[in-house]
Structures are given as C-alpha cells and as structure tokens.
Design a protein that fits this description.
alpha/beta, Rossmann fold, 13 helices, about 20% strand, globular
Length: about 375
C-alpha cells in the first residue's frame, strides 16, 4: 500500500506540530511494509526526492505565503503525478490549497483527512473559503480528529460526523539524555523550574506565563524559536530564562530537570500540544489551559496535572505554586502522565489505528 501525505511544510524545514505527526506515521508504517511519501512546499526545492528516515519527500517551490497559507504553481502537476501511484492520499488540514488539489486532481483516489485544527485567525477569509472546505470534507472517505475533545467542540467537525473517527496523535519512545548534558544544563538553569516548549506564537499565552512567573518568583525556562511574537529580554522577569531553539537531546535534558511543563496556550489554535505528550512521556506533571481542544485530553485535570482557565495569569500562578510546593503531588501526576502516554499516545498505536482505517477505506 502506498500512502501520499500532502501538507504545506515538512522536514527538514519544519519538525513541529503537523510535520511531526506525518513523520511518525510515515516512519511507523514504513517499518511494517507500507510505502509512505510526502509532498510539501519549500523555500529552496530540489527536483530529486529527498530521503527522510525511510520515506521519500517530494519538494515543490513555495511561491507565495498569504494569510498563513503557502502557495505553489508547480504543485498541481507534481500532485497529479504522485496521486496516480498512490493507493490513498492523506491530506492534513488546514491547508486550503490541499482542498483545491483534491477537487482538481484527487477525487479519483481514496482520501483521508486528518483534521488538526479549526481555522481560527483568518476568520474573514474563512467566509470565502468555507464552500470549498465543506465540499472537500464532505467528499473525503474519512476524516480523523486527533482527540475526542476536538471532535466534540469543533463547529466544522460537528457538521461532518458521518465519516469522522478519532485517532490520537502518538510519538515514539523517549531516548534518555546523556548525563553530562543534563549536568551541563543543571549548571545553567538549575533543577527546580517550570518548562515551556514551543514556537513563540500569538496563541501560546506567553504574556500570561511571564506575569505568573512575576507573581510567584518560581523559575521558568522558555524553549522555542521566535515566530509571530517578539519578546524583549529587558521585559523578562528575573526568574525567567529564554534559551531559544534547542536540539531534541537538549530538550530531553531540560525535561529531566524541570518540575513540570507549562503550556499556557489560551486560544483554540493550540489544537493538541505535542509538547504535553513529550512531558507525559518523560513522566512530568503538566499545567495547561481549558480551551476545549486536545490539550485537556492529554493533560487530565487532577490526574496528570492541572488545567486552568485560559488567559488567566492568577490561575497559572496558583497552579505553579501548587505543584512547586507539593513534590509528592507533582510526582504522582508525573507517574500518571507516563501511564497515560503508554496507554494512549505511543506512535505504534497511532500507526496501527491508521493502518486499520486505510484498509477499511480500500475495502
């Protein structure tokens, strides 16, 4: 079986969010004898397919980037070529160009759409795009939500229940960080802090996190590259440390040292929160906000961590104090988080569920 994944960005340019999910799926299914290919847009594209792990990536040039949507002139011919050899085309939503590709050249092939997120920011353009979107989703053989929470709260998914299923995101097992690396980070940031991991985007709730840090005086470490927001180092509280983007090994070292992970995202653009999965995998308690998405599926309030009201620095501060002052509670939450990961969020479980779905579609 040959699966073609279609999305606006992928490795090596991007290994966060949706590309991370595509990678886990492609590698996991390749290991059990399936062929996975990815079609994505790049700033500097190569005509020859790029080998990433055990699967191939087909690159086309990114010509425009408007309203968070990447566009390409050459993708239409490349998609038509690749779709001919695919048994299933797996689209990753939202990316409006994928809807157009399906309507023009993809209707002859079985289709799966993983619905990662509602369109939140571009509400005005959504009015124009909505007819194409609904036609695309209605025609898909299967739509997959990444959490039951999102399936129950997305106004779009509530209109497409007839072909909707839920398959949670899964990630591979953790590699324990090198002790010397852990000791090096301990010298820099200590070993009693809360950790934030993620791109610094408008929906991540960073201002609320910084205010909570000011209120509590509890150390926080912020990992992630600047994206849609800028933070002036002069505005940081003394107990906040920004370390920028780091390698996976460094991230695991910081997870080993931290008291817990904070994901203060306050808008539904945070549809799942893979950083929460990484914390659960590392056996760490979590603090997140109740925004009606997969974040509250990964972080179960009172079991794996604390879930607080969104956009509320006082609530974040209270949760930080609670976990910082009660080590036994933090340990219990961390143990539960690890069990939750093992039971629900392993990459091989996600791959098996998608394989079953693919087989059902092909019939």
């Amino acid at each position: 079986m040959n699966i073609l994944h279609v999305y606006k960005t992928y490795l090596p340019e991007n290994f966060m969010g949706v590309p991370r999910v595509i990678y886990e799926l492609s590698e996991g299914l390749t290991k059990i004898g399936m062929t996975s290919e990815v079609l994505a847009l790049y700033e500097n594209s190569n005509k020859e397919p790029l080998l990433v792990g055990n699967h191939h990536v087909h690159q086309v040039e990114r010509n425009l980037h408007i309203a968070s949507t990447s566009l390409s002139y050459s993708i239409f011919g490349k998609f038509r070529e690749l779709a001919k050899n695919a048994d299933i085309v797996h689209y990753h939503f939202p990316w409006p160009l994928a809807d157009v590709l399906y309507c023009l050249h993809g209707r002859a092939k079985p289709s799966v759409v993983t619905y990662h997120s509602d369109i939140i920011k571009q509400r005005n353009l959504l009015r124009l795009y909505k007819p194409i979107m609904n036609r695309f989703l209605s025609a898909a053989d299967a739509i997959v939500a990444t959490s039951p929470n999102y399936a129950e709260t997305s106004p779009v998914l509530l209109r497409h229940q007839e072909n909707l299923s839920v398959i949670p995101v899964g990630i591979g097992e953790r590699t324990d960080p090198d002790k010397a690396l852990v000791d090096s980070w301990r010298m820099q940031v200590g070993d009693s802090f809360f950790l934030f991991v993620g791109a610094l985007r408008y929906y991540k709730g960073i201002p609320y996190l910084l205010e909570a840090a000011r209120q509590t005086g509890i150390p926080i470490v912020i990992v992630g590259g600047t994206d849609s927001i800028e933070i002036n180092p002069a505005d940081l509280p003394q107990n906040a440390t920004m370390v920028g983007a780091v390698s996976d090994e460094d991230k695991e070292a910081l997870l080993s040292l931290c008291r817990g992970l904070i994901l203060p995202s306050h808008l539904r653009s945070e549809a799942f929160g893979i950083a929460l999965l990484e914390a659960a995998r590392a056996g760490k308690p979590m603090i997140s906000c109740d925004i009606g998405t997969g974040t509250s599926f990964v972080n179960k309030h009172g079991k794996t961590g604390l879930v607080v009201a969104p956009g509320n620095s006082d609530a974040l501060a209270e949760a930080m104090r609670k976990l910082f002052d009660d080590q036994a509670l933090a340990n219990t939450f961390g143990e539960n988080a690890r069990k939750h990961y093992e039971a629900n969020f392993q990459a091989n479980t996600m791959c098996k569920n998608y394989l079953e779905l693919y087989r059902q579609i092909i019939g």
